[in-house]
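Hey, quick one: can you model this chain's 3D structure?
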Amino acid sequence: MFLDHVNISVIDLEESIGFYQDLFDWRVRWRGKTTFGKPAAHVGDKDQYIGLIQVASDDQQRPDYSRPGLNHFGIVVESLAKARETLAKRGISPHNEPEYEPGRRFYFFDPNGVEVELIEYADGA
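Sure thing. Here's the predicted structure for all 125 residues.
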C-alpha cells in the first residue's frame, strides 16, 4: 500500500506547476480539466504526484492545527540544502525547523499558502 497523490487547490496553475517541477524535478503527468471543468494538472514522478486544481479565489487559509482537516503534507528529499536554495530563489524561507530524529526537516508555505514539510533522513531511507 502507498499514498498515490495529494490534491491542492491553487490560484495560478502555471505558477504552481513550475514551482513543484523546480523544487522536486518532477514532470507534468497529466493536464486537463476536472469533472467540474476546472483547469488541473498532475505533477510528479512515476510513483507519486500532486494534483493541482485552479480555483477562482485566493481565499486560502493557513493550516489550523486545532481543527480537523489537512494541515500539511511531507515529502522526503535527498538534500534539504538543495531544496532550501531552490526555495530561496523564489523568495520562500522555512518558518519552522524543529529537531527531528532520525533526520532533519523544515516547513514552508508554497505560493498558495499550503504548508509543506521537507524531510531528509540521516540514513538516506
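One thing worth noting: The first strand starts at residue 5 and ends at 10.
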